[in-house]
């Protein structure tokens, strides 16, 4: 097991210098500065106390079994706040789980979706989700804003979506950089796996993809052919009126990506989304980024 350097996962008490990523990649930092941390961590301090599984080391990578155990323990230690929701199955029949985090309310609540680990080899992504959950649970009783947020909103956090791929990436050195799911391809070759991030019903098969099973960005035999993508779709569709924000966490490229990653189709609130990003990152904003397509950047 390879420990990562502590400084990469040290959230400071202010947002200005937060750095959540590895390999010099600032995209997660900027992404979360914009969408989550500004209101979540503005007053938080890194503290060891608070409800969390004892002895769980947030400064190293954990395998799937450890992460599953961590989820169970969190639920046990935070009853009424943390609930495990099982919402689908992987190709290899592992149960996909998320943590629902929120405080009871008589009002109808809104929600934020966050998934990590859709690309197996991006280990910092699940590590980030775990640390994010820890920070929320550490601070909601002390920080009024976080407490208020949990009263008005639920967080749906999937620490590892591509569980099969993640387990495979832990197998040995030769599998460490596995990215896709573990379902067999349909190209008549021996190549396996679909890029789950490119299997959703959002301009499926149009830009930044490959139809070759051996490609890292193979988009699957059909739209939503992968049970993992289908599970997310079903869960979110059933709650479309409550979900305010959908975040998916990656660790590659110096990019903040907003819907829809297509040269001709822009989200209705594109300008608003961009306005939330820090000025320095906005300078780099360039619609041509999406025009280039996604083949070359493998986010
Ligand atoms: Zn990725």
Automatic annotation (TrEMBL):
<dbReference type="Pfam" id="PF00246">
    <property type="entry name" value="Peptidase_M14"/>
</dbReference>
<dbReference type="InterPro" id="IPR057246">
    <property type="entry name" value="CARBOXYPEPT_ZN_1"/>
</dbReference>
<feature type="compositionally biased region" description="Basic and acidic residues">
    <location>
        <begin position="278"/>
        <end position="299"/>
    </location>
</feature>
<feature type="domain" description="Peptidase M14">
    <location>
        <begin position="60"/>
        <end position="299"/>
    </location>
</feature>
<dbReference type="GO" id="GO:0008270">
    <property type="term" value="F:zinc ion binding"/>
</dbReference>
<feature type="region of interest" description="Disordered">
    <location>
        <begin position="275"/>
        <end position="299"/>
    </location>
</feature>
<comment type="similarity">
    <text>Belongs to the peptidase M14 family.</text>
</comment>
<keyword id="KW-0479">Metal-binding</keyword>
<keyword id="KW-0645">Protease</keyword>
<keyword id="KW-0482">Metalloprotease</keyword>
<protein>
    <submittedName>
        <fullName>Carboxypeptidase O-like</fullName>
    </submittedName>
</protein>
<keyword id="KW-0121">Carboxypeptidase</keyword>
<dbReference type="InterPro" id="IPR000834">
    <property type="entry name" value="Peptidase_M14"/>
</dbReference>
<dbReference type="GO" id="GO:0004181">
    <property type="term" value="F:metallocarboxypeptidase activity"/>
</dbReference>
<dbReference type="InterPro" id="IPR057247">
    <property type="entry name" value="CARBOXYPEPT_ZN_2"/>
</dbReference>
<dbReference type="GO" id="GO:0005615">
    <property type="term" value="C:extracellular space"/>
</dbReference>
<keyword id="KW-0378">Hydrolase</keyword>
<keyword id="KW-0862">Zinc</keyword>
<keyword id="KW-0732">Signal</keyword>
<dbReference type="GO" id="GO:0006508">
    <property type="term" value="P:proteolysis"/>
</dbReference>
């Amino acid at each position: 097991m390879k420990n990562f350097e502590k400084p990469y996962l040290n959230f400071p008490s202010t947002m200005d210098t937060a750095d959540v990523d590895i390999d010099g990649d600032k995209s997660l930092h900027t992404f979360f500065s914009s969408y989550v941390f500004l209101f979540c961590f503005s007053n938080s301090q890194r503290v060891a106390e608070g409800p969390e599984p004892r002895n769980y080391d947030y400064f190293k990578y954990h395998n799937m079994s450890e992460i599953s155990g961590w989820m169970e323990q969190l639920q046990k230690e935070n009853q009424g706040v943390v609930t495990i929701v099982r919402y689908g199955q992987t190709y290899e029949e592992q149960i996909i789980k998320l943590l629902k985090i929120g405080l009871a309310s008589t009002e109808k609540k809104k929600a934020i979706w966050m998934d990590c680990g859709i690309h197996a080899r991006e280990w910092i992504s699940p590590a980030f989700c775990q640390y994010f959950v820890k920070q929320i649970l550490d601070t909601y009783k002390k920080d009024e804003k976080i407490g208020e947020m949990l009263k008005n909103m639920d967080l749906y956090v999937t620490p590892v979506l591509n569980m099969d791929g993640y387990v495979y990436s832990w197998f040995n050195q030769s599998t460490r950089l596995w990215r896709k799911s573990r379902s067999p391809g349909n190209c008549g070759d021996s190549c396996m796996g679909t890029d789950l991030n490119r299997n959703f019903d959002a301009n499926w098969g149009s830009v930044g993809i490959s139809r070759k099973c051996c490609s890292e960005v193979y988009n699957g035999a059909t739209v939503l052919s992968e049970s993992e993508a289908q599970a997310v779709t079903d869960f979110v569709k059933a709650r479309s009126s409550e979900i305010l924000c959908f975040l998916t966490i990656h660790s590659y490229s110096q990019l903040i990506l907003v819907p829809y990653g297509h040269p001709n189709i822009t989200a209705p609130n594109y300008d608003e989304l961009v306005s939330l990003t820090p000025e320095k990152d906005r300078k780099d904003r360039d619609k041509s980024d999406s025009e280039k397509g996604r083949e070359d950047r493998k986010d």
